[in-house]
Amino acid sequence: MAYKSPMHEMSQTTPTQFWNDNCSLTDLAFSIEHGAVGATTNPVIVGQVLEAEFEKYLPVIKQLIAENPAATEDDIGWLLNEKMACDGAKLLYPIFQKSGGKCGHISIQTNTKYYRDTDKMVEQAVRFSKLAENMMVKMPMTAQGVAAVEECTYHGVNINATVSFTVPQALAVAEAVKRGMERRAAEGKDNSFLHPVCTIMVGRVDDWLGEVRDAKNIIVDPQAIVMSGVAVFKNAYKIYKERGYHTRLLAAAYRHHHHWSEFIGGDVSMTIPPMWVRRFVGSDITVENRMDTPVDEKLIAQLQKHFPDFERAYQPDGMKPEEFEFYGATNRTLKQFLGGYDKMISLVRGVMLNP
Question: Which of 93, 149, 265, 343 could form a disulfide bond with 47, CB atoms 3.0-4.6 angstroms apart?
Answer without folding.
Answer: 343
